[in-house]
Amino acid sequence: xxxxxxxxxxxxxxxxxxxxxxxxxxxxxxxxxxxxxxxxxxxxxxxxxxxxxxxxxxxxxxxxxxxxxxxxxxxxxxxxxxxxxxxxxxxxxxxxxxxxxxxxxxxxxxxxxxxxxxxxxxxxxxxxxxxxxxxxxxxxxxxxxxxxxxxx
Amino acid sequence: xxxxxxxxxxxxxxxxxxxxxxxxxxxxxxxxxxxxxxxxxxxxxxxxxxxxxxxxxxxxxxxxxxxxxxxxxxxxxxxxxxxxxxxxxxxxxxxxxxxxxxxxxxxx
Lengths: 152, 108
Description:
heterodimer; A: mainly alpha; Helix Hairpins; two-stranded antiparallel ribbon; 2 strands; about 60% helix; rod-shaped; disordered N terminus; B: mainly alpha; two-stranded antiparallel sheet; PFD_alpha_archaea (chain A); coiled coil (chain A); Prefoldin_subunit_alpha (chain A); 4219_t:CDS:1 (chain A)
């Protein structure tokens, strides 16, 4: 069948998302569908499909890496916030009159007035939260990278 | 020849479904991040004293808002997002089923 229509068929189906349903269907269909659609054995894939798989992995990887960069940025921003609050706390705040309280952006358009120590705690928690997330992401990236390397 | 046209029709249909599917996935992800953000705010509200000052950003202005009002507002948002997630989820299931079917059509 590969000879019948070799160019026409776009190979977007790199790895079947639900192999089980594919396998089931194939039992009843005795012909056409190549067995390579069924298993995820890399050696069974042809060159086009292999490069598709590779492309997919690379895309995932670049997405994850950019997310990781964003998380790092956010982390620095929160750390800057901590620094700012600490400056106010240190009393070096030029013309500010009310230095006991700050207004903290908690997201989705809401702002909360907080005492300085509360604000510091808030940001410290945020930094911790982001740090945990980026560590998990780092692990995912590493394992994906290993996947990609083994494909070459 | 007619086989070719059939194949082409099925292929383009399949591609359309794939596009819709990726759109739905994107929507699902967006909802998820909104949900998480709102959840964080909700958690933050819970820690607050009742007389705490809460402001809402409306355009360029910070408007003061009651804690109760803000809380119900966020809760309402969470409910809405939850229902939206459910909607997109069924849409996703539907689309992947359809595209799976198309895939067989193309393979055949």
